[in-house]
Write a structure and sequence with these properties.
Helix content is 88%, strand content 0%. By secondary structure, it is mostly helical. The chain starts with a helix and ends with a helix.
């Protein structure tokens, strides 16, 4: 699970940085939102086991 979170973060970081750059040039919000989503997913995946432990 930890490897998946690292991979998702590494794929989301260039999308977020490139999206902000394109947005500053007057482009679309799509890549900024896609990068932010991919960068928030690892933290949510890391929180799932902690939530499961508290649930039981």
């Amino acid at each position: 699970m930890r490897l998946l979170t690292i991979i998702l973060f590494l794929f989301g970081l260039p999308l977020l940085i490139g999206g902000v750059w394109l947005l500053s040039l007057g482009g679309s919000w799509y890549y900024t939102l896609a990068g932010a989503t991919l960068n928030s997913t690892p933290s949510l995946l890391s929180a799932i086991p902690a939530l499961a432990r508290n649930w039981t």
